[in-house]
């Protein structure tokens, strides 16, 4: 079933849009099935789960941290992480830069922008993101790089609201791309990825639509 879902989705999504398979709570066999089909980008919400999978799965997998960052656990993923999607504070950037410097590595990150009013959704606003990108603190760092923006739309079924949220983030992204050279706009999940792509998303995070029902591995 995973193979069938994967190739169906691949036909729907433009070639310039990257798929991050959200493998949270999926067992290794499901990830390996996608891997054998040529897929390499997988996203996890929890450090402990990601580390366990990294240790046992092929090392050319590109791991994405898409969940809330726990500063005290960053040291476990910095050596191998491909992209961190969920930066919300300058303190997180400082911590990443400090750890990455020990490995002589540059860690790419996205700023998570809050684009809806749901309490479960977190992120920074326009002013906060500007402050970070213009700060001397960030611009003096050598081991962390902000390469784009990430946002999550409302879970509600109000399509106009979702369209407006993605439209807003796309407008912000275009400003930042012109000024800072950002190249990643990460928005869109299983329930709304088609709308997100319409508004310029070039990275979508798909879980259920690829894997089906999740197992609780926690």
The major β-sheet equals: 8 strands, parallel
The CATH architecture would be Alpha-Beta Barrel
Beta strand %: 15-25%
Helix content: 40-55%
Radius of gyration: 17 Å
The general outline is globular
Q: What is the H level of CATH, i.e. the homologous superfamily?
A: Alanine racemase
Strand-pairing-aware structural class: alpha/beta
Mean pLDDT rating: 94
The number of helical segments is: 9
> What are the secondary-structure elements, in order, as H or E?
HEHEHEEHEHHEHEHEH
Number of beta strands? 8
CATH hierarchy, class: Alpha Beta
Spans of at least 5 consecutive residues whose pLDDT stays below 50 are: none
Main traits of this protein?
218 residues; eight-stranded parallel beta sheet; TIM Barrel; single chain; alpha/beta
């Amino acid at each position: 079933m995973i193979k069938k879902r994967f190739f169906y989705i691949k036909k729907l999504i433009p070639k310039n849009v990257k798929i991050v398979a959200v493998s949270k709570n999926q067992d290794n066999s499901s990830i390996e099935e996608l891997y054998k089909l040529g897929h390499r980008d997988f996203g996890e919400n929890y450090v402990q789960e990601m580390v366990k999978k990294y240790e046992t799965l092929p090392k050319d997998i590109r791991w994405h941290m898409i969940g809330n960052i726990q500063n005290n656990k960053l040291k476990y993923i910095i050596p191998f992480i491909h992209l961190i999607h969920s930066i919300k504070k300058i303190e997180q950037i400082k911590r990443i830069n400090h750890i990455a410097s020990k490995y002589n590595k540059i860690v790419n990150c996205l700023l998570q922008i809050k684009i809806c009013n749901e309490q479960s959704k977190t992120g920074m606003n326009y002013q906060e993101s500007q402050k970070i990108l213009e700060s001397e603190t960030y611009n003096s760092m050598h081991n962390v790089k902000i390469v784009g923006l990430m946002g999550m739309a409302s879970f509600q079924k109000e399509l106009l609201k979702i369209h407006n949220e993605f439209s807003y983030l796309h407008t912000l992204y275009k400003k930042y791309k012109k000024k800072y050279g950002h190249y990643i706009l990460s928005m869109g999940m299983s329930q709304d990825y088609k709308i997100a792509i319409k508004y310029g998303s070039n990275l979508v995070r798909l879980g259920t639509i690829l894997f089906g029902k999740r197992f609780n591995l926690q």
